[in-house]
Amino acid sequence: MHNVYLVSVLSSDKTGLVSAISGCLFDLGINLGSTSFTVLGSGAKFTAVCESASDMPKAGLEEALASLPELSEAEIQVVDFEFSPKPAANTEITHRITIQGGDHPGLVARLTEVFMEFDANIVRLNAEPLSNDGKEQYLIRIAAWLPPSREHACLASISNTASSLQMQCSYIRLPGDPG
Q1: Does 27 score more than 80 pLDDT?
Q2: Which domains are delineated in the chain?
């Protein structure tokens, strides 16, 4: 039997957390698919699409993870993954976009609306407040797929929107993108 699960772990951040979780999953014969890890304040979030060729039940997987000393007080959730573990065509990252400037409400919402207008897909987004010489700053990093026929207009609109919010925008096209 083939099982596909979404494994989520929320815990306090500590050195060795990713190694402990991924090592445990490997020892159980679990293959990691799409995986992310991020520090959130003093906490951390690990999320992965996991495939098991064995008949590993969700409860057994949760128990194995909960037995790790690094996860003694973590919130662990294992659920059936109802989507295909194979990425869609518009999830190939073609551009990395960085936007930085003063922090104010609605920033992420205003910037991400632009992607919808151009049928672009945000594959990953990381946003975090920064302290820069006592000034409150916000840094947004976006990995995105942009439709080749609309790439230039989309990037111009993102830059204009960032500028209207008094933020700086930079981007790179990744190698292999024919646009």
Answers
A1: yes
A2: 3-80 (3.30.70.260), 89-173 (3.30.70.260)
